[in-house]
């Protein structure tokens, strides 16, 4: 390995280590979660992106929507043990039923989502899911996975170069490595992260006093909306998110654990 390649590999390894320092865990068999805040740099980037998004997108002035988000968030935040998070919930004018979360506790909710959530418990399912992405540090995990794939491609390129392989072949090899990493690692991990956030989201909503069965009802409404829009079931293989029927089935299987929390 050449000195230049060695230095690059060391830099990438350092990046992987840095991205993996903050670890979070969730045990579905007990409902126990250990939440760790992401790195300061990732929290800063999350805040920066959220501020940029607020400048770009119109913030909703719908009194009912904003009141409902404040009401539900106020019940969820106290039961999330993550003192370093700077929670902020903003409703955006956007007909697409969607929500998102950024590192550090920045959560956006589109106005189009309220036709799906319909009630406080339905919204709690969505906010609980997004909060779970933050508390489980899923953004940092994605960075770690992407960096590992980049490291593999870098090492392969160095090995091929040392063997005198031409640059075109090396580019094809690097592209293939990246594609295999995406399909074999990034996408499955993304789908697993969504299912994990679904389950932990029901724990959070149950602890906040919302019936976790409403998460299933909400996803059933979401599935019906997609079908009405002509978005029929497709193969899960190249998707970042699980198919609706798969996440509904996973929630149904997890419901006894979520209900234990609700009965408490």
Topology:
Elements (H helix, E strand, L loop, with lengths): L2 H18 L4 E3 L4 E3 L5 H17 L6 H14 L11 E5 L6 E4 L3 E5 L3 H4 L2 H16 L2 H25 L4 H41 L5 H16 L15 H20 L1
Summarize the amount of helix as a percent range. Answer: 55-70%
β-strand number:
5
Largest sheet: 3 strands, mixed
Mean pLDDT: 79
Rg measurement, Å: 21 Å
What are the segments in which pLDDT stays under 50 over at least 5 consecutive residues? 12-22, 181-188
Distance separating the two termini: 59 Å
Q: Strand share of the residues?
A: 5-15%
Question: What structural category arises from helix and sheet content?
Answer: mainly alpha
Q: Describe the strand arrangement of the main beta sheet, using strand numbers.
A: 3-5-4
Total individual domains: 1
Order of helices and strands: HEEHHEEEHHHHHH
If helices are DSSP runs of H or I spanning 4 or more residues, what is the number of helices? 9
Instruction: Give the CA-based shape.
Output: globular
Describe this structure in words.
With 264 residues, this protein is mainly alpha-helical. Helix 1 packs antiparallel against helix 6 (138-162), helix 3 (63-76) crosses helix 5 and helix 8 (213-228) runs antiparallel to helix 9. The protein is built from 9 helices and 5 strands; from the N terminus they run αββααβββαααααα. It is 65% helix and 8% strand. The protein has one domain (3-23, 31-263). The protein has helices at 3-20, 40-56, 63-76, 114-117, 120-135, 138-162, 167-207, 213-228, 244-263; strands at 25-27, 32-34, 88-92, 99-102, 106-110.
Spell out the key features of this protein.
mainly alpha; 264 residues; 5 strands; 8% strand; two-stranded antiparallel sheet; 9 helices
